[in-house]
Amino acid sequence: MPIKYVRAFIYLLFVAALLPAPGRAQSMNASIGGTVMDPTGAAVPNVQLTLTSVATGALSRATSGPDGAYTFQNLRPGIYELKASASGFRDYIQRGIELTVKATMRQDVQLQLGTALQTVEVTANASPLNFDNAEHKEGITPATLADLPLLVSGLPRSSASFAIINPGVNTGSTASPYSMRVNGGLRSGDEAVMDGASMQEGFMSQSGMVAIFQDWPLTPDMISEIKILTSAYEPQYGSTTSSVVIAVTKSGTNEFHGGGYDYMRNTWLNARPWNAHNRVDNGVEVPDTARPRDIEHDAGAFIGGPFKVGSHGVPGFWSGRKKSYFYVNYEAFRIHGGVTRPTLSIPSMKERIGDFSDWVDASGNLIPIYDPATTRALDPTKPLSPTNVIRDQFMGCDGHTPNVICPSDPRLANSLAKQWFQFLPNPTSPGPTLNYLVPNPVPDTILSQTNYWLITGDQYIGDKDHVKISIYYQGAPLKYASELPTALANESNSAPQYTNIERANWDHTFSSNVLNHTTFGYLDRDEGYGCVDAAYVDKLPQIPGVAMYNVPPQIYLGGFTSMGACGAGRNA
Length: 572
Prior knowledge:
It contains 5 helices and 33 strands. By secondary structure, the chain is mainly β. It has 4 domains: 3-123, Immunoglobulin-like (Sandwich), CATH 2.60.40.1120; 136-249, TonB-dependent receptor, plug domain (Ferric Hydroxamate Uptake Protein, Chain A, domain 1, Beta Complex); 257-272 and 291-342 and 445-530; 347-437, no CATH class. The strands form 10 sheets. A 7-stranded antiparallel sheet has the order 17-20-23-28-29-31-32, with no helix packed on it. The chain has a 5-stranded mixed sheet with strand order 3-2-5-6-9, with no helix packed on it. A 5-stranded mixed sheet has the order 10-15-16-13-14. The radius of gyration is 33 Å and the shape is elongated.
């Protein structure tokens, strides 16, 4: 072996040793094999077989062995045509063979006596039964992805949603694919794979539906096929307690294809929630305000095809032995409002001035409000304890008005609560609780105004090499929304998130039984959080003695919506 090849081999081993373990390659290629027979069922050796991709024209060649057996490995998912030729027999052609992700299919060939000028043509798919191992997998075909609609409801469409229609899959008490459980496995215990590499989210140790459905939704305009491995899968899939969800991105073909789309929800297309009423401003009902504002768009455009201009190939991408293809999809998700408006519990106008006469139970009985300053032992001869304690009920200035704090009480006059009440809106309905209908729904997603790009490139060099590069980009701006006014917000805001997912796959065929598949994957998620109310840290009172704070303190009263409860801030 020449010295230069030895050095190259040693260099590749060194680079491979430096690669981190989580970057293991996971091939999504398919295979097909079978036996070539004559009309009597006897094996026919030395038959020349070719498998042609309908989409790209890529060729794979094989020769049947002494036992008539043949196999094609390292095949990209797609539609293929199989041709078999042998001296003394008619040419055999089978069209419409559909290979899905990781499919192991069998197609026996029976040749008929005759000349090569005569052809036996079959139009049928190969058997989907797996004769080679016990691996069980369910697939979401390209036809399903293209024909079945997906709901746009608070999130971009995700092809992984179709996983829940497979046998053995349930979502617990919810209808969300995020809660998918497979064959009794744990929620979030699955693994997600995109173009051959895991979508593990680094130190967050998240994968599966968390990644492929929630964090990086892959729409049907990006994905050609979804496959779910549920049992007896290969050791390369080790980061799962139940299943592996595999996604393969789209590729260009011999023909140029393009299109545009807009999946939308609109306030006027939605039904009015059963308990929603028109807004009332200054005693006047505002018509057509009962429906929550909900305007959502999942819009985009795509184009794909060969690297050719007219009939001329682009230099470096198209030649006699080299064929290259591209696919580009741009998608934008926009949402204003949401499907429902929550109803919150905030102090009533009477309660804000110390009048709790409206604080009653479900039967209308007054719930006593006690004066903490009157706390004393029920039995003065015994220590104060939870079972030996008594307080006086607030009874107003006249001593006969239950649950009313006298306005002249200095504790009420000097209360810091007024600092929060200045930002608190007025209730929209009577009653001590569930009395504030949020004016506009708040999108419950960090992907409210997100842009997506998917760019893929495929190159075939001869009939032995195939390289695919895919780049997925997600750009999400700062999320800054809350149900209560900003000063009292208990939500966290997400920092701008700019995510890149890159994949590189190389398939090389050394011989009919010596193959190589190499995958490189990179995932970068830039994620950070803060508090929506952080700007009001110096506009509201702070707890005395707190060593460090960067947000207002949390105010929580039993039975009411909390104020300033963001968990991303510091106030301790």
